[in-house]
């Protein structure tokens, strides 16, 4: 039995934030019914690299889900969503605030139908506040949260992380909210609304940024690959032009690092025995480490640091990930058979539960692949379903 077996989830919305949250629940056994637009479906189907006309990303984002194609702007389609919500445990949406209310599918309507419903709402700025009506994507959230200000080399243009980290962080906060709300429902018997804003999810991960400003007026600045206030922790260039990330910021770790480098003068310096002292001389320390790594290849540096139990690692490309034995041993590279019979490597499922682990039970669906089955489950006849299809309301 899966951890979330028996949990019924209705997924509205598209692209990343809402669907990623639903994907996480589906991986652990929830029955996720994804509502898509007829004909075109979720735009993610056409994002990035396509295989036979469909994004391979889609195979990850929508695995284990069922697809129902509905035109949510039509009143009859809205009635179908209400019927689905009536016996659902969770409903997830990531439209702009007000859209659901405009369709008669807001929390007041849905909780009146099903008081036990847990409703996750993900949006750029949240359901309240002066910015609620502004369009918001993850990249904007990353900027507003303060993250983008820090992701750069000093004095250079801030860069993005390279993936949709704002959406993903919001999704994970949403999943946490869902699980907490379901736990509380066991006591009260009542559902509730979870309001997740993209910028707030990223801001929640910004560590000491705000208290440092409040207490000291300190505005943290971009520091490239270093971690301000923690030393040494940086990327260092090696003899073969590669880079090694070294985290020697623990007091005993720093001693082992300097011993490995042949720099006991630094390791035994009383002024460098703790982080506060090392931060004062971080440029000197980084220069010493950089001078040492420049004399050795990446492999040589890592071999020496592994032997000394100093945390360090190379910068992986996806090719490195695909070939790495630890990824393989942990089941993080999963091979699936696509509907056309070809193989595709996809990320494994986390977190890893000992008794009820997640699993890949079915491939990502085609647009409306499960429309008939789902609509029959809520009592529609084949004749009624065909009539809706003839009108273009469902597909």
- Order of strands, main sheet, comes to 5-2-1-6-7-8
CATH topology of the largest domain: Rossmann fold
Shape: elongated
What is the helix tally? Answer: 19
**Helical residue percent?**
25-40%
CATH first level of the largest domain = Alpha Beta
Biggest sheet details: 6 strands, parallel
C-alpha end-to-end distance: 32 Å
The CATH architecture of the largest domain? 3-Layer(aba) Sandwich
Output the radius of gyration.
25 Å
Share of residues in strands: 5-15%
Whole-number tally of structural domains = 2
Overall pLDDT: 96
Enumerate the spans where pLDDT stays under 50 for 5 or more consecutive residues. Answer: none
CATH superfamily of the largest domain: Crotonobetainyl-coa:carnitine coa-transferase, domain 1
- Compute the number of strand runs: 13
Instruction: Indicate the structural class.
Output: alpha/beta
């Amino acid at each position: 039995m899966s951890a979330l077996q028996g949990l019924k989830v209705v997924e509205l919305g598209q692209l990343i934030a809402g669907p990623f949250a639903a994907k996480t629940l589906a991986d652990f056994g929830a029955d996720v019914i994804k509502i898509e637009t007829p004909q075109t479906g979720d735009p993610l189907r056409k994002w990035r690299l396509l295989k036979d006309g469909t994004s391979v990303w889609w195979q990850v984002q929508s695995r284990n889900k069922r697809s129902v194609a509905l035109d949510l702007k039509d009143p009859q389609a809205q009635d179908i969503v209400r019927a689905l919500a009536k016996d659902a445990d969770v409903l997830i949406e990531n439209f702009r605030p007000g859209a659901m209310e405009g369709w008669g599918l807001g929390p007041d309507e849905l909780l009146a139908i099903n008081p036990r419903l847990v409703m996750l709402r993900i949006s750029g700025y949240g359901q309240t506040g002066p910015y609620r009506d502004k369009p918001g994507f993850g990249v904007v959230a990353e900027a507003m949260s303060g993250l983008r200000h820090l992701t750069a080399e000093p004095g250079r243009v801030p860069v993005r992380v390279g993936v949709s980290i704002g959406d993903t962080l919001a999704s994970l906060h949403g999943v946490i909210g869902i699980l907490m709300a379901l736990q509380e429902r066991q006591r009260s018997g009542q559902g509730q609304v979870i309001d997740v804003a993209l910028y707030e999810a990223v801001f929640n991960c910004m560590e000491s940024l705000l208290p440092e400003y409040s207490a000291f007026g300190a505005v943290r600045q971009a520091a490239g690959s270093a971690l301000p206030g923690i030393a040494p922790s940086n990327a260092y260039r090696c003899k073969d032009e590669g880079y090694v990330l070294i985290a020697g910021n623990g007091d005993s770790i720093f001693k082992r690092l300097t011993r490995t480098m042949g720099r006991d003068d630094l390791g035994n310096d009383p002024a460098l025995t703790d982080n506060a002292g090392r931060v004062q001389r971080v440029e000197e320390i980084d220069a010493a480490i950089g001078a040492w790594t420049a004399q050795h290849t990446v492999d040589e540096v890592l071999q020496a640091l592994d032997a000394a139990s100093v945390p360090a690692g190379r910068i992986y490309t996806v090719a490195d990930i695909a070939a790495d034995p630890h990824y393989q041993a942990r089941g993080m590279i999963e091979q699936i058979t696509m509907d056309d019979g070809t193989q595709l490597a996809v990320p494994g499922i986390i977190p890893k539960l000992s008794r009820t682990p997640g699993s890949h039970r079915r491939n990502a669906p085609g647009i409306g692949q499960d429309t008939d089955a789902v609509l029959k489950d809520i009592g529609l006849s084949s004749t009624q379903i065909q009539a809706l299809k003839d009108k273009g309301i469902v597909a």
